[in-house]
Design goal:
The complex is a heterotrimer. Chain A is α+β, with helices and mostly antiparallel strands. Chain A is built from nine helices and 22 strands. Chain A has two domains: 227 residues, P-loop containing nucleotide triphosphate hydrolases (Rossmann fold, 3-Layer(aba) Sandwich), CATH 3.40.50.300; 118 residues, OB fold (Dihydrolipoamide Acetyltransferase, E2P), CATH 2.40.50. In chain A, a hairpin with a 2-residue loop joins strand 18 and strand 19. The radius of gyration of chain A is 24 Å and the shape is globular. Chain C contains 14 helices and one strand; from the N terminus they run ααααβαααααααααα. The chains are: A alpha+beta, B mainly alpha, C mainly alpha. Chains B and C meet through strand 1, helix 1, helix 3, helix 4 and helix 5 of B and helix 1, helix 4, strand 1, helix 5 and helix 6 of C.
């Protein structure tokens, strides 16, 4: 277990980076405390795998430092960092038995067979692999193979961090939840720092205590799943998390008030500073309701997703989603949208620019 | 998934016709000759299995077969590890890779008689590059027209020169298909280079190595042109491999009966050993 | 460059040495060759090449070889395509046995067929024709082409066939317009191997020809046995035979590694 600190980390895959866009990772400063469960969430190409490989030591960053428990490990190779990594597809040694697979990292470090046996049986029991210990790894199913990969990561007692790089990619959907719960269970038992990289918000939000959201090489927000949902600091977070994501509507600022489709929209609180740049209103569909008065809109699509209904409307040339329960309007009908005030926010150039009124009081 | 369709035979018919024409009819002729004797004028006498017995008991055949097995053994034992080693030492990516692969493949595209002729010129004792170097620079007495050992070393070296690249190319194809994640995981697991080779690279190269070994076995066992052009089977008959002997008997002496019997035995041995190799190397997949 | 890159470099040097020697010899006069050893041509001459380009017996040898090799490649790949498709997509009575039987022909020692082919092709009146050699080489090339193409076809999902059928393509149109382009790497590899094998094979080519379709390989043998042992001429002829191979392989250089594994990696 270790505290991980990323200090002024930047990375470019090019030998002579000239501009910002040459960097796969733009400046990152992060602290991860001991034993936590973290998720690195973001779309493809956001830099999360790069960051993961820097933490594990498979990549040396162009600039900056990484510290384990305040010790600089930036140039230390992977096998000396006491980390474990589980990859997107199961990486196991086909010709060995499950037992030998799990024993491999220990034997490479010259541990005696008694220790090996204790650890392997303990891990196998945790992962429900005990019956298969003597089977050759080659013919097993993908989810079992992934469990073996995880086991190899956990078998060493001195593991600081366990990293998962989109580990459920090749798993059948109906087995994903099983492995996810197993992972959560493992975290509670093993109490190692775990970092889970994914582009799937459900995986991230169910696994992690803290989520780091990344986009285009930058950390956009760090927070608990609830914080990310309730108070996205960036339009990207708002849009990425939630199903459907937050509505982002371009607006104009007139006399310090936000206007959309010629209507003044009440915001959660005062606007910070004098904003210059692209101004947008963000409101989650969960907080858009159909009322007798409010912003006029035309219904374009109604989808019943079981627990509730998603109504898609157009207003002012923009698409707005609303989540409602109960009777849904007809397609083509005119409705009035009401935005819950304390959940309506202003974003400038993507970043949150209003402060909640309660916070001020 | 394949669907059942008997009409697929129509697709296969042209192939069947051409290969059958080239394979079945000659084979029938060979089988015909192998059990008969002729003194010319298309008059044949039934001989039963006499030719087969004669060949199988003949010392000449045993000698040729022995030489052939020795040759093939040397070829496999040298070319396969060498080819794998060279493939392992090549970078997985980069500008030079296609250039290297083209240069390595060049020997395989040279007509076989030119290969023999090339090595002939190369090893002439006083005026060939290698011959001159060995005899006059290193002071080794080298003349493959006189010395059977020199002749053997030369034909083996010539084949290594000619065909190792096949093993290299096949092994290389297998190696570059291994995803980086395996090497990364091995680094994290603290595996040594030997462990990486034994547990990751070798298992993942199994298919291509099977192809390589089978091809090298078959082709070296059936080899004719290159050694024939180089040594003519000599000095004496020290490098007379099985094909060379067969052609001598068939086209040289026109001994149809023995040649035919020998052909069938030869073909049978090739098939049998190929089948053995194939089964041994793929037995794990059958489990 | 890493240290271990020395291995492929040394290997390539080893491969280039005899080729260099052959090329060097082709630019020497026979007198110089027989007089003694010289690393570079002392009297650089083009007379060997001149002889080859001006003497019909010589240059026809190349033309003949290219002719039958091309005919063989076209035939082999053309008939192998539908057959490989059948093996790849369908199950039918005797399919495994047929496939295996095809492969066994590749294993056959050419020497076994020397005499029977001589008799067979004489009997059908094809002796000493390009077609004879082209057809004879089919014995080895067709199984190889079928095997290579089947390997590549395995990588094309059956859904492609089904979609085309639903879209209203007739089978011939689907095959020509959709399927073959999707395996064009495989077609290239198969054609390459057919070309390569037919170009290098000597025994059958020599056995089945006399004058009219005599391949360059046979013409060269004439030189070696004729009086005077015209080594320079032999070297020049040999050097010229390397060129078609070099050209072909330069064109497929990006597919070499994968291609040699015949789609089965």
């Amino acid at each position: 277990m270790a505290k991980i600190t990323l200090s002024k980390l930047r990375h470019s895959y090019l030998p002579n980076p000239a501009s910002e866009s040459d960097y796969a990772l733009k400046e990152i400063d992060l602290d991860w405390s001991d034993g936590g469960a973290y998720a690195l969430l973001g779309p493809s190409g956001c830099g999360k795998s790069t960051l993961l490989n820097i933490i594990s030591g498979l990549l040396v960053p162009s600039d900056g430092k990484i510290l384990f428990d305040d010790k600089d490990v930036t140039t230390l190779p992977p096998d000396q960092r006491n980390i474990a990594q589980v990859f997107q597809f199961p990486v196991i040694y086909d010709t060995m038995t499950v037992y030998d697979n799990l024993a491999f990292p220990l034997r490479n470090r010259a541990r005696d067979e008694a220790t090996v046996k204790t650890r392997v049986t303990a891990i196998a029991e945790m992962l429900e692999l005990t019956e298969m210990l003597n089977t050759r790894a080659a013919g097993l199913s993908p989810d079992t193979k992934q469990k073996i990969s995880m086991g190899r990561g956990l078998v060493r007692e001195d593991v600081n961090v366990v990293m998962f790089d989109e580990p459920l990619t090749v798993i059948d959907p109906h087995l994903k939840w099983k492995l996810r719960s197993k992972l959560k269970e493992l975290h509670q038992r093993v109490k190692a720092t775990m970092i889970y990289v994914t582009h799937d918000q459900t995986e991230a939000l169910t696994f992690a205590d803290q989520v780091v959201v990344m986009q285009l090489g930058e950390v956009v927000q760090v927070g608990t799943p609830v914080e990310l949902f309730e108070r996205p600091a960036h339009t990207f977070v708002g849009h990425f998390i939630g199903s459907p994501g937050m509505n982002i509507l371009p607006c104009a600022l007139v006399d310090g008030a936000a206007h959309f489709a010629d209507q003044a929209i009440a915001l959660e609180g005062p606007i910070n500073g004098s904003p210059e740049g692209k101004t947008e209103i963000g409101i989650r569909p969960e907080f858009v309701s159909l009322a007798s008065s409010g912003l006029p809109a035309t219904v374009t699509k109604v989808s019943d997703v079981g627990r509730h209904t998603v109504v898609e409307c157009t207003a002012g040339g923009e698409r707005i989603n609303a989540i409602i329960e109960g009777q849904a309007p007809e397609k083509g009908a005119t409705v009035h949208l009401e935005f819950r005030r304390d959940q309506t926010r202003l974003y400038v150039d993507g970043w949150l620019a209003t402060t909640a009124e309660e916070a001020m009081a | 998934m394949k669907t059942e369709n008997q009409k697929a035979w129509l697709f296969v018919l042209p192939v069947l016709a051409l290969v059958a024409f080239n394979a079945l009819i000659p084979m029938m002729t060979v089988v015909n000759y192998s059990v008969q004797e002729t003194f010319g004028d298309n008059v044949f006498f039934w001989q039963g299995l006499d030719w087969f017995q004669q060949i199988l008991r003949s010392e000449r055949f045993h000698d040729a077969l022995g030489r052939q097995f020795l040759f093939t053994f040397l070829i496999l034992v040298i070319e396969v590890p060498l080819g794998i080693a060279i493939a392992l030492s090549m970078p997985r990516k980069g500008f030079w890779v296609p250039v290297c692969l083209v240069l390595m493949a060049l020997p395989m595209l040279i007509p076989w008689n030119v290969v023999g002729a090339m090595w002939n010129i190369f090893t002439l004792p006083d005026i060939g590059l290698l011959g001159y170097f060995l005899n006059h620079v290193l002071g080794i007495n080298y003349d493959m027209t006189q010395d059977p050992v020199a002749a053997w070393v030369t034909i083996v070296t010539m084949d290594v020169w000619h065909w190792t690249s096949l093993v290299v190319l096949l092994s290389y194809a297998g190696l570059v298909s291994i995803p980086d994640a395996y090497y990364q995981a091995a680094k994290i697991d603290g595996a040594s280079n030997w462990a990486v080779f034994r547990f990751i690279q070798l298992p993942k190269m199994k298919t291509v190595l099977t192809i390589a070994i089978l091809l090298r076995f078959m082709d070296s066992f059936n080899i004719y042109t290159e050694p024939f052009v180089l040594t003519g089977g000599g000095p004496g008959n020290s490098t007379t491999l099985l094909s060379i002997d067969l052609v001598k008997i068939a086209l040289g002496q026109f001994d149809l009966g023995p040649a035919a019997a020998m052909s069938l035995i030869y073909f049978a041995i090739t098939l049998l050993v190929s089948w053995l190799f194939y089964t041994l190397m793929t037995k794990d997949d059958l489990n | 460059m890493q240290k271990r890159s020395i291995v492929p470099i040394v290997y390539i040097l080893f491969l280039m040495l005899p080729i260099y020697w052959l090329v060097a010899m082709s630019f020497k006069t026979t007198n110089e060759i027989l007089a003694g050893f010289s690393l570079f041509p002392q009297t650089f001459t083009l007379e060997n090449y001149q002889t080859i380009f001006t003497d019909p017996t010589w240059y026809w040898g190349y033309i003949n070889s290219i002719l039958y090799v091309s005919i063989n490649t076209v035939i082999s790949v053309a008939v192998a395509l539908p057959a490989a498709y059948a093996f790849s997509r369908y199950r039918f009575l005797g399919d495994k046995q047929l496939f295996f039987w095809l492969l066994t022909n590749r294993m056959a020692p050419a020497a076994v067929f020397a005499l029977p082919f001589f008799q067979l092709y004489s009997a059908v009146g094809l002796f000493d024709t390009h077609l004879a050699v082209a057809l004879a080489h089919c014995l080895f090339n067709i199984p190889l082409a079928v095997w290579i193409l089947e390997g590549f076809m395995g990588g094309v999902p059956k859904e492609l066939d089904e979609t085309a059928y639903v879209d209203g393509y007739s089978f011939p149109r689907f095959f020509a317009v959709i399927f073959i382009p999707s395996i064009k790497a495989g077609v290239g590899v198969a054609a390459f191997f057919c070309f390569m094998f037919s170009w290098v094979e000597l025994l059958l080519a020599k056995t089945l020809t006399a004058v009219a379709a005599k391949p360059i390989a046979a013409t060269m043998t004439k030189t070696a046995s004729s009086a005077g042992y015209e080594l320079g001429l032999l070297a020049a002829a040999g050097t010229l035979t390397i060129i078609p191979g070099a050209i072909v392989i330069w064109f497929v250089r990006n597919y070499i590694a994968k291609g040699f594994a015949m789609g089965r990696v």
